[in-house]
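Contributing new complexes? Match this layout with flavin-adenine dinucleotide.
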Amino acid sequence: MAAMKWWGWGLPGVEFRHEDKPDLGPFFNDVLGLELGRVTAAPIRFEDLRIPEPRLPEALGAALDQAVGAAFVSVDPLDRVVHARGKSLRDLIRQRRGELRRVPDVVVRPGSEDEVTAILRAAVSSDAVVIPFGGGSSISGSLEAAVAETRPVISVDLVRLDKLLAIDGSSRLARVQAGVFGPHLEQQLGAQGYTFGHFPDSFTHSTLGGWIATRSSGMQSDRYGDIADMTKGLRVVTPSGTLVTRPVPTTSTGPSIREMVLGSEGRLGLITEATVHVRRIPERRTILGYLFPSFAGGLAAMRDIAESECSVSVTRVSDAHETRFSFAMRKRATPVDRLQSMALRTFLQRRRGYDLRQMCLSFIGYEGTDGHVAGQRKAVGKLVKRHGGLCIGSGPGALYDQKKFDTPHIRDFLLDRGAAADVSETAMPWSRLTPVYAAVTAAAQRAFAELGVQGYLMCHLSHSYHAGACLYFTFAFLPTPRGDMIAEYDVVKSAIQQAFVDNGATLSHHHAVGTEHAQWLEQDISAPGVVMLEALFEGTDPGKHLNPGKIV
Ligand SMILES: Cc1cc2nc3c(=O)[nH]c(=O)nc-3n(C[C@H](O)[C@H](O)[C@H](O)COP(=O)(O)OP(=O)(O)OC[C@H]3O[C@@H](n4cnc5c(N)ncnc54)[C@H](O)[C@@H]3O)c2cc1C
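Output block (do not edit by hand):
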């Protein structure tokens, strides 16, 4: 797997284009006052970066060479810069400006668990810091070494641990090495008729180990569960040896060690292997589009589906602001498309009484046998109708399914034009959904007003559970002409995060804590919760060699 751009999302040469989307320019002009045609802020050139010299003591360098072979020990400047950070907005802005700070001194790529053990042993005996690196897609500041870190920093890239090792077909369990990227995992499982079913938006550039270490959640989690549900057994190299948990369906062995590793962000050790739950590739997979007259109606329908006997793979409903954005992303329409969409609009207004400005777009996914999918569509259709919803077929869903991995490129596209955009997501009980949505909307508007900027906030429900759901907010604004984009981003991001914890929601449903969300941890899990986490990290890694400073 090739490395992502050192300054942005995705592979070099792959970028978001707006020319084939005629409504996008007018949309951004209206909501942000932004001219898409003008690129105003390109990233600094790599040649102009001031990359600090690696601080790698000779003995440590020799020990790493011996651990993995000199070919897999790199002090190449580009390699070190790529491994310095993840892809949060703060990371992107600073990389583009050339504000590098504490770059890892060396990048090592082990090819086996024994090699991982040898690296950790060398690091501990040389008092060095180890930061595990999966795909580098962290959005929470989980990969950067502290600026004041004086010890050598080793980025351990697990890319070579990429094999599907075995499948226990009768238990539907697969043993997989942790450095495997999403597409390669699906390809290896697919060759034997299985799927993992974990499809985060970052799927193409993230790994199994990274998903586990951040408690990730994929688009189809309503059917497959999130990574915590799917991970059954683990192997983790820790300072006191290799931790092994058995892949049993459940266990009564005291507080769950497996759960402690989930979301540990490299602070407990390096995950080398996991035994995960897989499924047979379904006969049919389809995502249907629906329209609702309001966000409240769409949310109520998703709650009814979650509460019912229905089993769907995706439940997603956008608010009116995000629906407007989705429509602005459409490609140039043919005359037939235009006629059809005009007819639909007229029908919705005249026959269904929709106010088109409040209309909300929704996607519901179905998987299984033909018969199962047909039955589910019918049952869901009744619940949708109860809330004034209307099915608009499989076309929009298929398009959304194809394009979803392109969306992450938009942040770079907007940064090139001087605008900031990022996300904050959370989970809460169904009873708190509306208050949280209202509080976040008010908080973001207050933040935009305080800064004196034109901003845009949009939201969708992205995952449903019996007891609650995940709300995913995206915000964008054009910073003030002389302001600092990071400082202004902090004002908006903090307002949204604070609204989460003040209103009974969590600081993150699936983006982890890292350094970006750490300031809200105590409000979320209470002071004794933080004490327990500190004791866990301190007890496991008293020398603070493993990704120090993350989470707490
Ligand atoms: C545009 C965008 C879209 C995203 N969409 C989603 C989404 O839909 N769902 C979602 O859940 N997340 C999403 N994320 C967040 C990110 O992709 C996830 O956190 C992902 O799980 C990180 O995986 P990674 O392999 O890239 O890990 P990295 O970013 O490399 O690492 C993340 C953390 O895990 C640790 N780590 C990595 N591998 C190991 C290992 N083998 N052992 C121990 N620790 C390890 C690292 O040290 C670090 O602390 C998105 C991020 C971006 C930028």
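Reviewers usually confirm one structural detail per submission. For this one: Residues 335 and 406 are 26 Å apart (CA to CA).
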